[in-house]
Design a protein that fits this description.
This protein is an all-beta fold. A hairpin with a 5-residue loop joins β8 and β9. A 4-stranded antiparallel beta sheet has the order 4-5-6-7, with no helix packed on it. A 3-stranded antiparallel beta sheet has the order 1-2-3, with no helix packed on it. A two-stranded antiparallel ribbon has the order 8-9. Helix content is 0%, strand content 58%. It contains no helices and 9 strands.
Length: 110
């Protein structure tokens, strides 16, 4: 079981243990203030994996997809830079509009 907390501080994403509040690591990939962090549900990539995954979004207009590797720790899977303005929120749906299983990510910029 993963009892983790992820949050943004300045341009960093911090991963901490929920029970002890001990900071486990800081992730550097954004150039602007991190405004939003959202965990992805288990199996959100279509696999049966329970590897923790999350998205982070920032004022630099980027969204970063992260996952955890037992061998290498937290890794950037993908970085999207589609927004011209600051991203203020991310919403994740595991059901597509036609009712089939899939992942839809929506983001809002200021």
């Amino acid at each position: 079981s993963w009892d983790l907390l992820a949050y943004g501080t300045s341009s960093l994403v911090v991963i901490a243990d929920v029970e002890s509040a001990h900071v486990l690591c800081t992730l550097r990939e954004h150039e602007g203030r991190v405004n939003c962090v959202r965990w992805l549900p288990d199996g959100s990539d279509g696999s049966q994996s329970s590897v923790p995954r999350f998205l982070s979004a920032s004022s630099d207009g980027s969204i970063v997809s992260w996952d955890h590797s037992p061998e290498h720790g937290w890794l950037k899977r993908q970085k999207l830079k589609e927004h011209q303005d600051s991203i203020t929120t991310i919403s994740i749906s595991m059901e597509s509009p036609n009712g089939s299983r899939g992942r839809t990510v929506a983001s809002v910029s200021a």
